[in-house]
Design brief:
Length: 223
């Protein structure tokens, strides 16, 4: 199976190079989408062996993933695996997702951190739990960690789903649209390099959680 590892990155020059090198040990093809970084993120990624696509201005994580989907479809990849650029996600878990794909045939596999929620600070833990509950209700699919960015997307999903969001909420939109289109969703427990990621994440627990909920319910009821 032809698989592409995708790392959406914003100002991640300190971590992206090592993440690329470790990912290449698991999967040959690695793409970094530099989403308007002001540092050497793109240069570090390229020197470490990644294909690099660059947004001249910051367009949001969802926009970076959609750029990667376009590349993957054009180059006929069977699946895309996304990792966050801050080092929280372990490339060594990539075989877990590939094994789960073979076992389940799912079109969307989500790396679940639910067993680690207890180690998160309260506001992050509650945001994750609430978002997962609301998106499960909105999509009709059982999702125990809706905000994990460690995912596998099938080519069928990438080709069939129209995605309108450009920020963090795109990852919630895709869950709702996949469920509405009867694509199979499965969860895979993963480990983390560190649990909270408050210092490195661009995610804003309150503001982005509200935006995620609005996007999810708009997608569910308005299409």
């Amino acid at each position: 199976m032809k698989t592409l590892v995708v790392i959406p990155a914003l100002d991640a020059e300190q971590t992206v190079g090592g993440l690329v090198r470790r990912s290449i040990e698991q999967v040959r093809d690695v793409l970094v989408v530099d989403d308007g970084s002001s540092d050497r993120t793109g240069d570090e990624a390229a020197m470490s062996g990644a294909i690099v696509l660059r947004h001249e201005v910051n367009r949001g994580k969802g926009a970076a993933i959609k750029t990667a989907f376009e590349y993957a479809i054009l180059h006929e990849f069977d699946a895309v695996i996304t990792l966050d650029a801050d080092g929280q996600h372990l490339p060594e878990d990539i075989p877990k997702l590939l094994h789960a794909l073979s076992a389940t045939g799912a079109d969307l596999l989500i790396g679940s951190r639910r067993h680690l929620f207890g180690e998160m600070v309260p506001r992050r833990r509650m945001a994750n739990k609430f978002s997962s509950w609301a998106i499960s209700v909105g999509s009709g699919a059982r999702v125990d960690d809706s905000q994990s960015g460690y995912r596998l997307y099938s080519a069928r999903l990438m080709k069939s789903l129209p995605l309108r969001s450009s920020g963090f909420d795109m990852e919630s939109e895709v869950i709702v649209r996949a469920a509405r289109n009867h694509l199979k969703i499965a969860m895979v427990p993963i480990e983390l390099g560190f649990v909270d990621g408050l210092q490195t994440s661009h995610y804003r627990p309150i503001r982005d959680t509200l935006r995620i909920l609005a996007t999810s319910f708009r997608t569910r009821f308005l299409g």
